[in-house]
Write a structure and sequence with these properties.
six-stranded mixed sheet, 339 residues, Rossmann fold, elongated, 12 helices, 3 domains, 434 Repressor (Amino-terminal Domain)
C-alpha cells in the first residue's frame, strides 16, 4: 500500500497543501479554524499519514523527540503522566523517550549529556528531589524544559498538582468519619510535594479543632517498601494506637496495608486508610482503597503541550500550571471510627 503524502491529506481534507502542512507540524502561528484543523487531523488518521521526521529534522536541526525523566518505574503517577504526554506529542509529530533516573544514583552530568548530544529537543523533568539547583543548571544550558509533578521555586515552566488541597480533602474525609488520631505517612523529607501535603494535613486538623501531633507523622517515601517500614514504626512507637492512616501515595499505602494484614489489624474495622492518587490497582487491593484522585494524565498532556510551545518559540513568558484534585472515591478501606 502506497504511503499517504501531504498532497493526499490536503485533497482528502479539502484544503491546500500548505495549510495541511502547517496543521500537521503544529505551527502555533497558523490561522486555521478549529473545524478545518479537526478535518485535517481526521484525514491524516484515516489515511494513516506518517510524517517524514528525518527530513524535518535535517531541515531545522531537530530530533522531533522529547525526553521525560522519571525516578520510579512502578509508580502509577508516572505511568499516567507518560500516557498523557505521549498522546499530546503524537498529535504534533513528536516521539517520547523515557529516561529512568535512579534517585539513589546521582548522575550530575545526565542532563548535560542529553543537551550536548541533542538526543532530545526538550525535557519533561520529574523526580523526587527535583529542585532549584537543577532548574538553574538547565536554564544555564539554555535547554527547553518543563518541570513536571513539582511546584519548584524558580521554575520558569511547570505543571503540578494542588497537593495541599488534595491532602485536605483526604483528611477531611477521615475527620467526617469521626477519626481524630490520624497518622500521616509522608513523602521525602524536605520534598516540595511532601511539604505541601503535610501542610494540607495540618490545615485540615486545625480547621476541625484537632491538635497537631508530630509523633503521628512518619516518613514513608513513595514506595511500598517505604510504606511497610513506616507502618511498622508507627505500630511500634505510637500509643494509643491511631485509628486512621493518610498516605501520601498509593504505593506507600499498599505497603502499610500489607503490614496491617500481617499483624491481624482489621481494615477498616480497626484502622481506616486513605491515599492520594488513584489507579486501577486501588480497586484490586484488599480492601479496595479510598483515594483522592489527581489529574496525572492531564498533567502529562499539559506539560507536553507547554514544552512544545517553548521548543517552537511561541511561549517565552514563565508559566506555572497547578491542577486541582479530581475527586474523592470512597471504597471499603475507610469507615466510621468506633466510639
Amino acid at each position: 500500500m502506497r504511503k499517504a503524502t501531504l498532497a493526499d491529506i490536503a485533497q482528502h481534507a479539502r484544503v491546500d497543501v500548505s495549510t495541511a502542512s502547517r496543521v500537521l507540524r503544529g505551527d502555533s502561528g497558523q490561522r486555521v479554524s478549529q473545524e478545518t484543523r479537526a478535518r485535517i487531523l481526521a484525514s491524516a488518521e484515516a489515511l494513516e499519514y506518517v510524517p517524514n521526521m528525518l527530513a524535518r529534522g535535517l531541515k531545522n536541526a531537530r530530533s522531533y523527540t522529547v525526553g521525560i525523566t522519571i525516578p520510579q518505574l512502578d509508580n502509577p503517577v508516572f505511568y499516567d503522566a507518560i500516557q498523557g504526554a505521549a498522546a499530546a506529542l503524537k498529535n504534533r509529530g513528536y516521539s517520547l523517550v523515557i529516561n529512568y533516573v535512579n534517585p539513589s544514583e546521582k548522575d550530575e552530568n545526565l542532563y548535560k549529556k542529553l543537551v550536548q548530544r541533542r538526543m532530545v529537543d526538550g525535557l519533561l523533568v520529574s523526580g523526587f528531589d527535583t529542585g532549584e539547583d537543577l532548574e538553574k543548571e538547565l536554564d544555564e544550558l539554555g535547554f527547553p524544559h518543563v518541570t513536571l509533578n513539582r511546584d519548584v521555586p524558580g521554575a520558569r515552566f511547570s505543571v503540578s498538582h494542588d497537593n495541599q488541597s488534595a491532602a485536605m480533602i483526604a483528611v477531611d474525609h477521615l475527620l467526617e468519619l469521626g477519626h481524630r488520631r490520624i497518622v500521616h505517612l509522608a513523602g521525602h523529607q524536605g520534598g516540595v510535594n511532601a511539604m505541601a501535603r503535610l501542610a494540607g494535613y495540618r490545615r485540615a486538623l486545625e480547621r476541625a479543632g484537632v491538635a497537631y501531633d508530630e509523633s503521628l507523622v512518619e516518613l514513608a517515601g513513595y514506595t511500598a517498601a517505604g510504606g511497610a517500614t513506616a507502618m511498622k514504626r508507627v505500630l511500634e512507637r505510637v500509643s494509643p494506637r491511631p485509628t486512621a492512616i493518610f498516605a501520601a501515595t498509593l504505593m506507600s499505602a499498599a505497603g502499610a496495608l500489607q503490614v496491617m494484614h500481617e499483624k491481624g489489624i482489621a481494615i477498616p474495622g480497626e484502622m481506616s486508610v486513605i491515599s492520594l492518587h488513584d489507579a486501577p490497582f486501588a480497586s484490586l487491593v484488599y480492601p479496595p482503597m479510598t483515594t483522592v484522585a489527581l489529574a496525572n494524565e492531564e498533567m502529562g498532556r499539559a506539560a507536553a503541550e507547554l514544552l512544545l510551545e517553548v521548543i517552537e518559540g511561541s511561549h517565552n513568558v514563565p508559566r506555572r500550571i497547578i491542577l486541582p484534585p479530581v475527586c474523592l472515591t470512597r471504597r471499603a478501606s475507610t469507615a466510621a471510627a468506633k466510639a
